[in-house]
Amino acid sequence: MEQNQRALIERYADRLAELAYKGPAMPAERHAAQLEPTVEERRHWVPLVQSIGLEHAEAFTWQKEHAEIQSYRNDENRGWLHIDTQGQFFDRNAQPIAAQAAPEPLGLSAAITRGNEQAADMNKDSATNSAYGLSV
């Protein structure tokens, strides 16, 4: 298991423990519902995860939305990615750019193929998988 996946699972487990501590009388279904990403969270994060993969998406912070374009800042090198819901990458002026050119300055050009493969795996069984690739 990779370090980023481990960190995500640890955060998920911490959230489970927090929910159990704060609301032991709450039904399990309600706990599970609180762990599911909201429609807004899905809208913000799905383009990034589908484009570069979950393991690389961990290094980004969602910043803003302009029309259908989601903007993310890389926490490590402060670079930016701008992606729409179709997976199209954009420059800072909202002009379309090639998928290989966008993440290149961030050292992620090879990640795009892996991200698309991971997105396909995540969408296989959307009824049991959250948008973060975790089964609930």
Using brief descriptors, characterize the structure shown.
136 residues; alpha+beta; five-stranded antiparallel sheet; elongated
Question: Secondary structure elements and their pairing?
Answer:
Layout: H1 3-22, H2 28-35, H3 39-52, H4 54-57, E1 60-66, E2 69-74, E3 80-83, E4 89-90, E5 96-97, H5 111-124
Antiparallel strand pairs: 1-2, 2-3, 3-4, 4-5
Q: What would your notes on this structure say?
A:
Helices cover 44% and strands 15% of the residues. The two termini are 18 Å apart. The protein has a five-stranded antiparallel sheet with strand order 1-2-3-4-5, covered by helices on one side. It is of the alpha+beta class and 136 residues long. It contains five helices and five strands; from the N terminus they run H-H-H-H-E-E-E-E-E-H. Helix 3 packs across helix 5.
- Which regions have little confidence, pLDDT < 50, spanning 5+ residues? 122-136
Strand content: 15-25%
Shape: elongated
Count of separate DSSP helical elements: 5
Number of strands: 5
What's this model, at a glance?
This protein is α+β, with helices and mostly antiparallel strands. 44% of the residues lie in helices and 15% in strands.
